[in-house]
Design a protein that fits this description.
With 270 residues, the protein is α+β, with helices and mostly antiparallel strands. Helix content is 21%, strand content 9%. Strands 1-8 form a two-stranded antiparallel sheet. It has a two-stranded antiparallel sheet with strand order 2-3.
Length: 270
C-alpha cells in the first residue's frame, strides 16, 4: 500500500515543493496539517511537562542521524527526518531562495514552538504569548518526513510501501515486557539492537543503555524512546494508555495542544 495524505504529504509546509522539488508527485501537493508538538514556550523557555516534546526527546542523545535537516541526496537516498529553520533551495534561474509562507510574503523560519512569528528574526520572540493551535502560523512546530519525499526525477519517488507494523515495534514491545518484569538489562539490550543504527560509532558509549553504554533505562525513558522510534506512525496512544496517561486524565488547562501526543494538528491552508 502506498503512503500519501496524512502519512506524509500533510506533515510539511504548503510550499515545500520548492525545497523538495517534488511538485509532480502522484499524491498531490503539500498542505500543512501536522507538526511536532512544541518544546518551547513563547519566552524561549522549555516546557516542564514530561510527555510530548518529541524534538526535545531527540535532542537528549547527541549525534542522532534523524535530527539532521531532511535532504534528498539522489538515487532514492536521503538524510535527516526533520524540517526546521530556513529551508534554502536553488530556483530555475540558479538563485538561492528560501521557502516562503503561503499566506504572507516572508521567509519561513520553522521553530520548535507555536505562535505568530511571521517574518520575525530567529532570535526574537513575539509579544503575543498566546500559544495555541489557532494562534500558530506556518513557522510553528518542526515538521517531519517519516516516509521519503523524493524529487520528481528520482525513480523511487512514492515507491516506499506504507508499513502497518515493523520489526522494531515487536522488539520494543518485548523490551517493555522485560522491563516491567524487572529485567532491565535484557530490555536495554533489545532496545540497543535497534537504537545503535541511529548514532555514529563514537557516540554509542554515551547513547546506548547500560550495559552496552552509559545511558540509564527506566520506565519514563522507555516512553520517551517510543516517541523517538515511532514518531508519526500513529502508535502513540497505546503506550500511553497502558500507563493511564490518556487525555481525559489531563487538566483542561494543559490541552492547548495535544501535549500527550508527539504531533499536533494545524489549520490547512487553501
Amino acid at each position: 500500500m502506498q503512503y500519501q495524505g496524512d502519512n506524509n504529504r500533510l506533515s510539511v509546509q504548503a510550499r515545500e515543493r520548492y525545497y523538495l522539488k517534488d511538485s509532480k508527485a502522484k499524491a498531490g501537493d503539500h498542505n500543512t496539517k501536522y507538526a511536532a508538538s512544541p518544546s518551547y514556550d513563547l519566552n524561549g523557555q522549555l516546557y516542564s511537562y514530561e510527555l510530548g516534546m518529541p524534538v526535545q526527546n531527540f535532542r537528549k542523545y547527541d549525534g542522532d542521524y534523524r535530527m539532521k535537516l531532511y535532504k534528498n541526496l539522489g538515487n532514492s537516498k536521503r538524510e535527516g527526518m526533520f524540517l526546521f529553520g530556513y529551508l534554502e533551495y536553488t530556483d530555475d534561474n540558479g538563485n538561492v531562495m528560501k521557502v516562503r509562507a503561503p499566506e504572507q510574503p516572508y521567509d519561513l523560519y520553522i521553530r520548535d514552538a507555536v505562535g505568530k512569528f511571521q517574518g520575525m528574526d530567529p532570535n526574537q520572540w513575539p509579544d503575543d504569548k498566546t500559544s495555541t493551535l489557532p494562534n500558530g502560523d506556518h513557522n510553528s512546530g518542526w515538521h517531519f518526513v517519516k516516509y521519503p519525499l523524493y524529487t520528481d526525477d528520482d525513480e523511487g519517488q512514492m515507491e516506499s510501501d506504507y508499513c502497518e507494523i515493523r520489526l522494531p515495534e515487536i522488539i520494543y514491545s518485548l523490551a517493555e515486557c522485560k522491563l516491567r518484569n524487572g529485567d532491565t538489562r535484557g530490555a536495554a539490550q533489545l532496545l540497543n539492537s535497534v537504537r545503535k543504527r541511529n548514532y555514529p560509532d563514537d557516540k554509542l558509549v554515551d547513547n546506548l543503555y547500560a550495559p552496552d553504554g552509559r545511558a540509564t533505562l527506566q520506565e519514563k525513558e522507555l516512553l520517551a524512546e517510543w516517541v523517538r522510534q515511532f514518531l508519526a506512525v500513529r502508535s502513540r496512544r497505546f503506550p500511553l494508555a497502558v500507563r493511564g496517561g490518556t487525555r481525559h486524565r489531563m487538566p483542561t488547562s494543559t490541552l492547548r495542544y495535544s501535549r500527550l501526543c508527539a504531533t499536533f494538528s494545524m489549520p490547512i491552508t487553501h
